[in-house]
User: What shape does this take?
Amino acid sequence: MTNYTAQAEKFAQKHGIKLSFIGEPKYKKHFTDDKQHRYVFKCKLMREGKSYTFPFGQSINAGAKEPSIYDVLACLQKYDVGDFENFCGDFGYDTDSRTAERTYKAVCKEFEAVERLFSDIIEELQEIQ
Assistant: This one.
């Protein structure tokens, strides 16, 4: 077990965070620019009676192995990305791109869910990278 994995497991245990998987993973392209298929899991994070359900595209090298709590927590959007123009500037997107706009909206939606679940401990969550 790596230090990163141990840190995430300790964080989850300390704050009563549970990770579960719904159904079987699907083998498909997950990201807009994916060239290869990957296993996509339907994940559910739960804490204090709240939950967030979302797709998680596993790394291609990990295959069908379920993602760990570290894998999931490390990949969550833990910072507010600001407005669309700032997002595009910070992440190299064209402000005249519909793909960029869809990505921006998805990132904002994820951050809202993360804030709802972890607002009181978000700074500690941000340390999991």
The mean pLDDT is 96.
